[in-house]
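queue> holo job accepted (copper (II) ion)
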Amino acid sequence: MAIRHYVLLATDGFIKLPTENTLCPLPDTRQDLYVFGFVGGLYQVTENGCVTYENKNLDWKNPDNFTYLKSLTGTATIPSPVMWADVGDRLYVTLINLGMPTSGLEDPHTIHLHGAHVATQLDGFPETSFSVPMWMEETVPPTATYYFYPEHPGTYMYHCHVEASEHVQMGMYGALVIYPSVDSLAMAGITRNCCGWWEYEGMVQKQIPRCSSHRNFAYNNIGTYFDKEYIRLLSDIDLKWHQTVQTTQQTGISFNASTFQPNFWLVNGRAFPDTLKPHPLTYGEGENENLTQLNYESYVHVATDQKFLLRMINMGYQVVPWHIHGWHFNVIGKDAHASPFLAFADAIHVHGHEYMDMGFTCTIGSGETYDLLLMADNKKPLYGNYIFNGQDEIPSLCSQMDELAQIDPALIADIPTDPVLCGDVKTVNYVELCGKGEFFPQFYPMHNHDDYKVTNTNTLEEPNFSVYPGGQLTFIQTDAPPEDGHHCGCCGKHHIEIEEME
Ligand SMILES: [Cu+2]
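queue> job finished
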């Protein structure tokens, strides 16, 4: 059990949205968007009586930190920092209100831990609790500290609930993830033996690498193991609202909520092609286990045969039909509750598709979360022969692509690989891969299937226009199974862990 204490500071800021679909556009082709949001993050963790300060500068009681804290004013982006904890931890979030100087608005703010089982006093709904005023004086800021005792693992979100129609649209939201604890897994029969292997009801689970922790399970269920996880925080932006809020103090004009008409659709605060780039809120690998657990990377990059979890969160005002190419997902949870199908499959000891809640498009309403588990299985055995050799008297796809390339090389895509570092964009071209006899990497898009939301709008110039692709679109890249892996004798899958069973 740990006491995890976050400090969030509410303020305003700007993000830049692409108005083109070129991968690394010049800054002047971007749309500035005025936003509200939270900055800050994890302040301290107390475990077994030991206090670790993750960011001592967030200690708002220390006057030495006032300059730093005030310097965060105006630095908000979308989304706000990820917060996470284990079941049974105590989660505290201290809220400071830095104000929103660009617009001059002096609104109070709250933190609503959406989906959390908290007492009404802590709910962040100001009409039934309280809100936090702006920090005006050079004394210790007025704060409130929210408390959440996480009982259920799953995917949650948080947002400000002051004038929610406005403050949520302006961007005051972030992801909240609760993992099972070692104890909660044990109560579900999931334990670790002395050699580090995971067991379920006393049976060693060879498909789960020993390096996995309790945070490689989405729920207290053996069927919710994943190798990698990704947050998909979806939202939509009405540029006119944002511009109106930015100038409302001068103009006296506010927006009419019933005219909501978004023209940007975001994944983790960004529109394609920015979704292919490394996310600025992502910490370096291994930098700090308290901080590197989760991030807002939009580009999914896994090895073939890995299991990956998509934590879908819809903070927009529109329903999102989220479609994933390449594989069918298994809905292992919704709104922080494990799918009942998992228990059913477990009870009758089957794991076939017919006993799971599978699909290829997940329809996500505002305020909903879904946990989608995918297995990046290997398509080479089924499709490699046709692609490289041809079959059924149809020539190889490689030779067909080669002929198309001779008509126009641009017909064969140069696909950017993960992560796209502008200035050094690495690409894959399938004609070249054919020449090397290589099947990997594979690339699968996932996107909002309201395809008009897979666009970016240019509102800077007349006439206004939109470009495709843009908006809520990103990729899953799967590389070849690792060469240093081993073929598991139990499940027949390829695993990264090379150690033999003990
Ligand atoms: Cu607010």
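queue> The first strand starts at residue 2 and ends at 18.
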